[in-house]
Specification:
alpha/beta; four-stranded mixed sheet; 316 residues; 11 helices
Length: 316
């Protein structure tokens, strides 16, 4: 039984071989995309036991996703398949300035139809932490009902819930996001938004005031990620600002937040000091942005330790 369970959609991404408008691109690389699977794989590479719950189409792209996630050591026993809904797909577009545009083809995908009755509750009960993101809420009303049932079960069984808002305004409006996310926050133990997301959710810009509000509604641990400005982390007993690691060349920022979450949860459940948990999360994010792709740069535990100690990996 896994110590961590993540719940949410994974898709196939198609990334162009070079920058430019997609109307002129005809060669793509296939890969795996999804916040929850990024976190799953990040944890698995840190030698944690992880399970992923989702729904995929009974199609070749679904086969690819299962193969990739399972190959990373993540348990996929409770990923169900749909014959009536397909696996989601996204296309990336690389701009000459290095930015990435994303185009989703996931409307009514299989993951819009998650079913609480498909889950083995003993499997869920085994977890130390259940993680999901606002993307799961955004996909459908069905998923919002599903998530509320998961949250209620976790609260009743003392399972920690980690939640990253991951607000995607291509999926829903800020008004919808605020309504649905604020409604579930009393069930959340570990909250990991970007500071801009938190400002949108709470209509507050000051980090200390955001932290105070989150702690007042029962969140045990709050993390505010702020890119190159560092990370704020707090619980009822302490709060810290933790600087990021300098990276000489940023290749792809997609997935950096998920890498942080994996490192932070790994550290927190291994009883490291709160400030060190954020430092390790920052290290994971710094390593992830040096590779093209959502999860390609997620390090092994050995690679992470080398990075943190500034030592070089021994190749032979």
């Amino acid at each position: 039984m896994p110590d961590f369970i993540t719940i949410g959609e994974s898709m196939v991404y198609l990334s162009p071989e070079h920058a430019g408008s997609l109307k002129h691109i005809d060669r793509f690389k296939k890969g795996l995309a999804g916040a929850e699977t990024n976190v799953s794989i990040g944890l698995a590479r840190l030698n944690e036991s992880v399970g992923w719950i989702s729904k995929l189409g009974n199609d070749p792209f679904g086969d690819f996703v299962i193969k990739e996630v399972r190959g990373e050591g993540v348990d996929t026993s409770y990923v169900t398949r749909s014959t009536s809904h397909s696996t989601g797909v996204l296309f990336k577009e690389l701009t000459p300035l290095g930015d990435t545009n994303v185009y989703y083809y996931r409307k009514d995908s299989a993951a819009h139809h998650l079913n609480f009755d498909d889950i083995n509750l003993d499997y869920l009960k085994s977890a130390k932490v259940v993680f999901f993101s606002g993307i799961t809420l955004a996909l459908s009303e069905n998923n919002r009902i599903f998530c509320r049932k998961i949250l209620k079960f976790c609260k009743e069984n003392n399972i920690l819930v980690a939640f990253d808002p991951n607000i995607r305004l291509k999926l829903w409006s800020i008004e919808e996001a605020k309504r649905e996310i604020l409604d579930i926050l009393p069930y959340v133990d570990i909250l990991t938004p970007g500071i801009e997301e938190a400002s949108m959710l709470f209509d507050i810009e000051d980090s200390d005031k955001i932290i105070d509000l989150c702690l007042s509604i029962g969140i045990k641990t709050i993390v505010l990620k702020s890119g190159d400005k560092g990370t704020w982390v707090a619980n009822k007993d302490e709060r810290h600002h933790v600087p990021v690691f300098n990276v000489k060349k940023v290749v792809d920022t997609v997935g950096a937040g998920d890498a942080f979450v994996a490192g932070f949860l790994h550290s927190l459940t291994n009883n490291l000091e709160l400030k060190e948990c954020a430092r390790i999360g920052n290290a994971m994010g710094a390593m992830a942005v040096q590779y093209l792709g959502d999860m390609e740069g997620l390090p092994s535990l050995y690679e992470l330790e080398c990075f943190l100690s500034s030592s070089k990996k021994i190749d032979r």
